[in-house]
Amino acid sequence: MRKMPASRIAKSTADAQLQRESWRIFQIMAEFVEGFEKLCQISPSVSVFGSSRLAPDHPWYAKAEITAKLLSDAGFSVVSGGGSGIMEAANRGAKAGKSPSIGVNIELPREQKPNEYQDVSLHFRHFFARKVMFVKYASAYVVLPGGFGTLDELAEILTLIQTGKTRRIPIILVESAFWSGLLGWFRETLVTNGTIDAGDLDLIQVCDEPAAIIDAIFAHYQSRSLEPSEAEQEILLEL
Predict the structure, then answer these.
(1) Domain map of the chain by residue range?
(2) Which end is more exposed in the chain, N or C (fewer Cβ atoms within 10 Å of the end residue's Cβ)?
(3) What is the pLDDT of residues 184-231, one digit of tens each?
(4) What's the pLDDT tens digit per position in 20-61?
């Protein structure tokens, strides 16, 4: 029995892989379309991040819930990652307020169970599509203590604003004691070595109290509109 040449086997495998990747494009498109359709109506909104591992009796959970309630009552839809911990607290607080509670859920190998406090629930398989939804409609980022995922979202928004790929919005870190080491490293290592400018640190604010977070967001918009300008809308189209 003659064997198929290795080159033909490789080509057949490559063709099958290409076919799978081509169909994946439509799946990605569908995620973007659904996200745009559902989220374009929720402006203004604030994206809230933090650890999924914190129990409801943790003080940071309580702070996230209070903050989200204040944001919701102030007229901001609240967007979280839709899971447990700080994400649940954010959706819970928002749902108790006057504005929509949004969950931007992600399918993970270790299943993430959507929390029950979502008025609008989106589901993504691709992190990059999900990230766009957090940024595109956000009037502010509120970042509570968290792990790698939280740091990833923080680095994402800092990079996008620093490079002019999105409009400048408040980036507020909550719990100064938690973030002090990272901010010190930014100043003493990144700025000192010239890998970022000292002015880049002005993109970040630190607050400890929920009321101060709301005040910081409104202070940012005292002299500008919550809605993106025409120029900012053009930037966001290319996000």
Answers:
(1) 6-237
(2) N
(3) 999 999 999 999 999 999 999 999 999 999 999 999 999 889 988 899
(4) 777 888 899 999 999 999 998 888 999 999 999 999 999 999
* pLDDT over 60 at 1, yes or no: no
Amino acid in the structure at residue 95: K
Cis peptide before 44 (omega within 30 of 0): yes
Alpha-carbon gap, residue 121 to 136, rounded angstroms = 17
First to last CA, the chain: 55
The helix/strand count (H/E) of the chain reads as: 8, 7
Q: Are 236 and 167 in contact (CB under 8 A)?
A: yes
Cα separation, 192 vs 48, in Å, equals 30
CATH 3.40.50.720 given to domain 6-237: no
Q: What is the pTM of this model?
A: 0.90
